[in-house]
Amino acid sequence: MACQGLQSGETLASLKKESDSLKKKLEEERGKLNDIELHQVAEKVEMLGALSIKTKRLLKGHGNKVLCMDWCKDKRRLVSSSQDGKVIVWDAFTLNKEHGVTLPCTWVMACAYAPSGCAVACGGLDNKCSVFPLSLDKNENLSAKKKAVAMHTNYVSGCTFTNSDMQLLTSSGDGTCALWDVESGQLLQSFHGHTADVLSLDLAPSETGNTFVSGGSDKKANVWDMRSGQNIQSFESHESDINCVKYYPSGDAFASASDDSTCRFYDLRADREVAVYQKDSVIFGASTVDFSLSGRLLFAGYNDYTINVWDVLKGTRVSVLFGHENRVSRVRVSPDGTALCSASWDNTLRIWA
Amino acid sequence: MTIRNAIRDHGQRYRPRMACLKKAEKVVLEMQDPKTGVKSQPQRLVITTIPHAITGEDIIAWLAGRFQIDTQEARNFGSMLVALGYIYPLQDHKRLVIKPDASLYRFQTPYFWPTQQWPVEDTDYAIYLAKRNIRKKGILELHEQEHYNRLHKWMNHKWDFIVMQAKEQYRAAKERKKPDRVVFECQERAYWVVHRPPPGTVSAMDYGLDRRIDPNTVEMIFTQQSIMRPRVKSSVSIGALVKYCATYKNHDPFLLKCLPSNPWLTDDATYWTLNMPNVEIPTKMRVERWTFSFGELLSDPRGRNDFRLFLKKEFSGENLAFWESCEDLKWGTAATMREKAEQIYKTFLARGAPRWINIDGKTMEVTVKGLKHPHRYVLDAAQTHIYMLMKKDSYGRYMKSPVFKETTKKAICPEEHKFSDNQLEQNARNRRPSLSPIILRQMEEEQKAKMAANVDITQVMTKLSQQGKEAPPPPPRPKRN
């Protein structure tokens, strides 16, 4: 359970009081170096031109809600997973389906493409994350070579390979994240600190070292050191569950999407939230975010079936993308920034450019 | 509350995933304001008149004005209000969308609003279906009939109660005035379209999985260290974030057209061909990125190769080789870790090692000590030291070197594609698949093996010639599968 036991002499009330006063102190410390706001610095930045983003591909083939997708490093292939257990690898450029696997579980909420492009990982309600090596032989049953790598005690909500095919990082409904050795299935490091389901994670871009960020139902976004398992930074400003977290391309900041219908931007070096992306006509929860290559645009998918495009620096919304007929569960910009892929509960994926 | 619902309630009692409901209610109340809300009118329906009907176009206009948004967005927002059940259509009642014309809608009575607190009961649905059956047999639609049969089966033990309630409600309804009765029937019917949607329709009430842990418990974990954590002035860190955007602005295909053209827009994959990982001649844009940071140079395989070439000429290639070996150790399989660590020690760190790297005494001491009980991060200190050395010293010299100048000179800047509509259609028909990453990896492994063999031979030859010995005949080429 989420609560620790009480020490003798402590009451629930006194602990909460202490916790609240420490939080207040933290905000004070954070405020001391707060000498300017993002939108003020952004005043000197030139306005964005009008964007013309349209659907360029419609990927049909899933028979049920598409819950997750991930791009291959080759910039055109991608893997997607859905509620009925199907995982499909596509060449999005030609619309060819190259591989397909059916997992014996439903709600495959997490899928990831290996950096080499030769394997995919996926997991969900089976509480596991399995790695499937891909094969050139179309007739081969990929499930035969499946390797169950991660074992959690509740659903797997997110997964990503680290800088090689050999390690997998997962987040779970059991409140933890974990780092696994793919070949042996060995748990290399576990990360405890969230007090509710962990819904999303993202690895820091390689230059900036060995950290990752996670977001959960406890409304917190935590930054972790992969080596020690320690929670090195924590942000709690959302009013509801954080559904998705994603690093800014430089690795010095990250964005989050929440059920409170806002997306937020956090500066890691200043250790504070520096922007809130919200509009009073946007009342539905945001489930996913990703940055464009330069970090200037933030694409966010919402539960009202739309994708809003935000100017990260100025905080304004620059575009709305309509097209999906149900919730947008995942948006991802391609590795070279040429396109955006969105996955939706309307059983389709769309490529926008 | 039925037992089933209590078990499933993992802190969902305030349904944080449906936080939109409170916000939607605020809007709906504003819409019903007699002075500033949406215009309403009485509507004739056969022989009765339904009061307070509103048209789709009026709803959209009101929303567009209130939120300062365009009609497409207003229409989407309005449709979501219908999908949630705050507004219902009078005609075509099963399609929960706003039509941008004179189609009629009504505000749902708060009694039938979706609540965050209680999930909708099957018992109530059973009573509703039974009541409609009483009113007119055979009126139930196929999916409703299927629900009815299913509920009849598993609620059999309280079916008498359900039928009794249905009869009672039916009797009470008959005592109402006709217009009130018609209105109530519309409202109730709309409520059930939202909460028991016909098959094949999208339901806004479908929020996916419940959370496992109750997020409403008081959390008692906090970190005192956060307070003591070193921080940077906002002006500095925010300045850096803004600068990053400016630096990469011209490289962002969403902000500036990439050359020759974006493959997704023109169906021409030349852009990808020109930017393959190990292409011989890179593009000018790609080379420009290498100048942004040392990390950019290293993370691009073509850039790293160029840098490697430069280091070879400076006889400091071992630094990069060491860094790469450390990466391999950190991200590699657990099984080979120990072996790799030993190999790295022998090759780079031990006294007299063939590719000895120059790190300061303290770091060397710490590293050698750590290697007694190797773990994947044992070389971190040494790796960071070498990385900083390359970044602060070699990188700068590389930028001024003949190698880099040559690469920059040869780098190509492709002309922008100018396709006619016919050509674009042609391109779309001729989309070709690319080489599978599986094949590319096989080719890469073969390449690596070749390179490794070359290094070994060179090392051996050098050492032998230094010792004044005759070079042995070259070893046979390793067999490749």
From TrEMBL, chain A:
Species, as recorded: Dicentrarchus labrax (European seabass)
UniProt subunit comment: May interact with RGS9; this interaction stabilizes both proteins and increases RGS9 GTPase-activating protein (GAP) activity, hence accelerating the deactivation of D(2) dopamine receptor-mediated signaling.
Gene Ontology BP term (one): signal transduction
Record gene name: gnb5b
Protein name as annotated: Guanine nucleotide binding protein (G protein), beta 5b
Domain of life: Eukaryota
Assigned protein family: Belongs to the WD repeat G protein beta family.
Any Pfam family hit: WD40_Gbeta
UniProt keyword annotation of Repeat present: yes
Coiled-coil ranges per UniProt: 12-39
From TrEMBL, chain B:
Gene Ontology terms: biological process: G protein-coupled receptor signaling pathway; intracellular signal transduction; negative regulation of signal transduction; regulation of G protein-coupled receptor signaling pathway; visual perception
Stretches with biased composition (Pro residues): 471-481
Domain DEP: 34-109
Keywords of the record: Membrane, Sensory transduction, Signal transduction inhibitor, Vision
Pfam family of the protein (one): G-gamma
Annotated ranges, domain RGS: 293-408
GO cellular component: cytoplasm; neuron projection; plasma membrane
Region (Disordered): 460-481
Organism: Dicentrarchus labrax
GO molecular function: GTPase activator activity
CDD domains per the UniProt record, alphabetical: DEP_RGS7-like (cd04450), RGS_RGS9 (cd08739)
Superkingdom of source: Eukaryota
Database matches in PROSITE patterns: DEP (PS50186), RGS (PS50132)
Location relative to the cell: Membrane
Protein name per its UniProtKB record: Regulator of G-protein signaling 9
SUPFAM superfamilies: Regulator of G-protein signaling, RGS, Transducin (heterotrimeric G protein), gamma chain, Winged helix' DNA-binding domain
Membrane topology category: Peripheral membrane protein
